[in-house]
Structure formats: C-alpha cells, structure tokens
Amino acid sequence: MPLNIDIQQILLHMFNFVLLFGISYFLLYNPVKKFMDDRKKYYEDMDAEAKENLKQAEELKASYEAKISGSDAEIEKRHDEIISEAYKRRDAMLEHAHKEADEIVDKAKKEGDYARKKSVENAKAEIEAYVTRAAEKIVSGEDPYESFAESPKSEES
Amino acid sequence: MSKKKKTVSMVVFAVILVGLLVGIILTKPHHEEPIREVMKDAVLHESAKVDLFGLATVNPGLISAYTVTAVFFIFALIVRIFVIPRFKIMPGKFQMLLEKAVGMFEDLAVSNSPHRNKFLGAYVFTAGAYIFIGTVFELFGFQVPTTTGGVIALPAPLADINGAISMGVMSYSVIMSGGIAGNKGKGILLTLKDFSLPISMSFRLFGALLSGALVTELVYYYMAVSFVIPVFVGVMFTMLHALIQAYVLTMLTALFYGEVSEPPHKKEKKSKRNRNDNLNPEVE
Description:
The structure holds 2 protein chains of 2 kinds. Chain A contains 2 helices and no strands. By secondary structure, chain A is mainly α. Chain A has one domain (9-156). The radius of gyration of chain A is 62 Å and the shape is rod-shaped. By secondary structure, chain B is mainly alpha-helical. Chain B has one domain. Chain B has helices at residues 3-26, 35-44, 60-83, 93-112, 118-137, 161-183, 185-193, 197-222, 229-261, 272-279, and strands at 50-52, 56-58, 143-145, 151-153. In chain B, the strands form 2 sheets. A two-stranded antiparallel sheet of chain B has the order 1-2. Classes of the chains: A mainly alpha, B mainly alpha. Chain A binds chain B through residues 3-6, 8-14, 16-17, 19-21, 23-25, 27-33, 35-36, 39, 42, and chain B through 43-46, 52, 56, 58-59, 62, 65-66, 68-69, 72-73, 76-77, 79-80, 84, 87, 89, 98-99, 102-103, 106, 121-123, 125-126, 129-130, 157, 160-163, 165-167, 169-170.
C-alpha cells in the first residue's frame, strides 16, 4: 500500500491502544477519579451537614427569641396582674378602714350620748335629793344654808 | 555575582567550547546516503524494519508503541499498588499531579459533552497520555536492531503512519459510539457527516509528529555541530508536539463526541393563539 500503510500494523497499533486503555482505566483513571469523587462527596456532605446545623441553629435561635419575647409579655402581664391585685387590696383595705372608723365614731358618739344622758340623769337625781333634803330641813327648822355648806365636808371626810 | 557562581559559569562555558571544538574536528561531513533517502526513510520506514518477536516484520514505531504501553503499565501498576491506597484528603505533590491530569481530561470531557462523558473522559485521558508519553519517549533514543542488521533509534509511536491512522480511526470510532449511544441511528448519520475526520485526525498527528523528527534529521544531516544543537532543537520540537498534539486530538475528539451525542431538542409547538398574537401584536 502507498506510504507504507499496513492494515496488520494498524490493527496491532489498535490492539496496543485498547490494551493501554484498559490499563489506564482500571489502574489509574478510575481509582483516581473515584478518590476525587469520594472526596468531593465528603466535602459536599460536610457542607450539607454544616448547612443543616446552621439551619437548626437558626431555628433554635428563632424559637428561643420567640420564647424570650413571650416571656417578656408574660412578665409584663403578670406585673400588671400583681399591680392590679395590689390596687384592689389597697382599695379593700381602705374601704374596710373607713368602715371601721365610721363604726368607731358611731360607737363613740353613742357612748358619749349615753354618758351625757347618764350624767344629766345623775345630776337631776342629785339635785332632786339636795332639794328634798333642803326642803326637809326647812320644814324641820334647820338653817338650810349651813347644812348645805357642811354637807360637802361631811361627804369629803 | 559570587566567586562560586563565576567559577561554575567559567567551567560550563569552557566545557561547551571544548565540546564544540571536539565535535567540529571529529564530525566529518560524510553521508552514506543522500538526504532524500534519509527523509524518505524517516517518513516511511521502508528500509528500517524491526522484527516483532518473530511474528512479523514491523515498523519501529510499533515497537515504540508496545514499549510505551509496557512502561505505562509498570508505572500504573506501581501507582495503583503503592500510591493510590495512600492518597490523602490534602494531597501531596505527586497525588496532586495525578489528580490534575485526571481532572484536566475529565473537565475537557464534561465541558465538551455535558450530557454523556464518563467513557469520553477515560478515552481522552488515555489518548492524551499515550500521545504525550509516546512523543516524549522519542527523546530517550532507545535503539533496537533492524532486520537488515543495523540499529535504529525508536521513534515516537505516532510518527509511524500506521500508528497515526489507528489513533485517528479509533477516535472516530469513539465519536461514532457516542453518536449511537446518544442519538441511535441519527448519531451514525451525524458522525458520517464528518467523514473526513479520521483522515484529518490521522494525518494531522502523523504530520505534526513527523515534522519534529524531520527537522531534527535535517539538523543532524547538514550541521557540523550536530551533537549540540539537536539537543535543544529536538527537545523543543518534541516537547511542543507532545503537548500540542495531545491537546489537539483530545480536544477534537471531545468536541465532536459532544456534538454527535447531544440529545435532540424538541421544538415547542406554538399554539394558534400565540401565533395570532405574534401576527397582530397591536390587537391587544
């Protein structure tokens, strides 16, 4: 054939190349590529895991933030309740105190009235007794002025 | 410049000068065969044949091809047994070199044929490694006995036209296999459309690799200082061809493979309403 082209040698070259392909594929290309793919997967998994962890952390953070904001509201609500309760108790105590004060004043008034009435009655009775004794002495002839003047002394002694 | 550097420079300069003088004195311009015969033999290998284990008489390029495969096999076996099991997540220098080589061809396959590239990646890796190592192999100048009783330095496997044709035909076959896998019968037609591809691939490889050898032969033939200059010229041409041809063939194979194996895109049928809207845009 022209240019020294030889079919047998072409086939021998092809056989050699196919052999080389097998050697190259099974001994070099595939193992190296497999290692590279595994490493890539390792880093992708690591990346995915990091992203997942980040996502979980974000969710956790959001939940804690929600809890914190919720607790603030709860604290405020509780604070308002306590203040309101304190006001109610204060009002009740004041009312009770007012009531007690009114009762004490009423009682004092009643006792005062009673004492005044009693003293007036006693005074009336004493006056009546003095008048009666004076009248008796006048009737019996004694000097009513002297007996009136002596009577307290005798009483004091 | 320090004293030590000066001394080294002087010694190197003196060695070069002495070498050149010895070469000029010893090399007589005697040529047993004319340049035409030398060039013809470099291209066709008609006279310098080598015996292949007593089975056939072949071109020295074929012996180079099998030697390259044997060397590659030993290297790959050592790497597979001793290096790859010790690969680390953070790679060392040699591991990085291997990963870079594999990654480069894999990227070439993925970028040119995104839909189907597993086999293509392995093929272009092997082809690239074969062309590069085979071409650099020429630099070592291993000598083998010829059938005529002389010796010949083993050339690059692809400087043999049979090797270049086999490479071109196999690349074309790989492209066609991609077409069949991706598009069935249409893939064959798409591949056959570029029927000149195996010829262009083969002869591009052959011509490019041969040109380096021919230039070196010319330099050897005509220049009295042929024992110094070819070192630079030969290395330069060989290295350039090793890199350029490895890149060109793998890139072309990946490109055509991607083209013929690309699945067909279904055109969306336009509805009548849309068609009317396009015809009368101002109606709305």
